[in-house]
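Lab notebook, design round three. We kept the backbone fixed and only want residue identities now. Task for the bench partner: fill in a sequence for the structure below.
Input structure tokens:
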């Protein structure tokens, strides 16, 4: 089967896009893995099929498949790239400045800006309200805290590992996230750093620790695992994504980390969060909705046989 594709990324979190408005394309796990292979394929953290939406208010539906073939409910960087795909190809009128995207996590309103060529440069996505109740995240841990409005949630619950305890705050943005804040790198064992002489977030061995916690029994549907540090210049975060390993950026993970930083008293509601691929601006508004702003870029396009 020959496919026309485009490769897009949001802060280095990259995706293979295929237009499938009539819903005729079904990819096997093997085909998805081949497309995402960085040596023998196009390379990407996932594949996004652009399909028609049954919702009249939505311009199109984002069908997102992780690189391991599993279906994902939502992807923040992916939905910004989805917006660029639609706007740059005229599926959404560039002059409109806004539209609604359909996802497995529900409709997501998006506003955007374009350049002189009417190509999307930046998008702001209304990511909705965070989900905190343990059963809905889901997380198989009892709530041990409440928000000011009385919503129960899991706050810095300790989970053991071969390298000691890590404390997780659990948030869903339509997909499950478990966020641990590393306040003191020197307190962690040398074994979790690729360079123990320079203990910091950059040298933290996320492939080791993230891979341990992603399938942990506390997370019945697995979880995206975020490792974050709040310092004098703001919040820095790395993420081990469910179904594909570490990515350079994660939009839903950035939103979840912002929520966890607020709920644990480490930061205010509006922050720039530094990721390996760049910076996302997150604003947890007073109405409960989280607004995520960032860039989206097309790398190249072509055809491929799968």
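Proposed sequence:
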């Amino acid at each position: 089967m020959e496919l026309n594709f485009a490769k897009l990324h949001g802060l280095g979190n990259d995706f293979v896009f295929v237009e499938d408005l009539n819903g005729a394309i079904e990819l096997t796990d093997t085909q998805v893995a081949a497309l995402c292979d960085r040596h023998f394929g196009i390379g990407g953290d996932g594949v996004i099929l652009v399909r028609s939406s049954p919702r009249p208010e939505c311009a199109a539906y984002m069908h997102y498949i992780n690189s391991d073939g599993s279906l994902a409910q939502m992807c923040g960087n992916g939905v910004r790239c989805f917006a660029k795909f639609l706007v740059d190809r005229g599926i959404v009128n560039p002059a409109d400045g806004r539209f609604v995207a359909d996802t497995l996590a529900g409709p997501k309103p998006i506003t955007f800006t374009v350049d002189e060529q009417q190509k999307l440069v930046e998008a702001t996505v209304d990511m909705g309200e965070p989900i905190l109740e343990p059963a809905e995240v889901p997380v198989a841990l009892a709530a041990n805290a409440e928000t000011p409005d009385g919503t129960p949630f899991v706050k810095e619950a300790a989970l053991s590992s071969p390298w000691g305890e890590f404390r997780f705050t659990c948030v869903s943005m339509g997909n499950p996230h478990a966020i641990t804040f590393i306040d003191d790198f020197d307190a962690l064992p040398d074994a979790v750093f690729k360079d123990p002489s320079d203990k910091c977030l950059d040298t933290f061995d996320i492939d080791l620790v993230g891979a341990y916690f992603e399938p942990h029994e506390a997370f019945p549907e697995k979880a995206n695992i975020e490792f974050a540090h709040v310092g004098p210049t703001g919040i820095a975060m790395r993420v081990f994504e469910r179904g594909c390993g570490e990515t350079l950026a994660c939009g839903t993970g950035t939103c979840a980390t912002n929520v966890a930083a607020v709920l644990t008293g480490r930061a205010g509601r509006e922050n720039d969060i530094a990721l390996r691929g760049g910076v996302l601006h997150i604003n947890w508004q007073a109405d409960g909705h989280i607004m995520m702003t960032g860039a989206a870029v097309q790398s190249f396009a072509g055809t491929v046989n799968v």
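Keep this in mind before ordering anything: The two ends are 5 Å apart (CA to CA).
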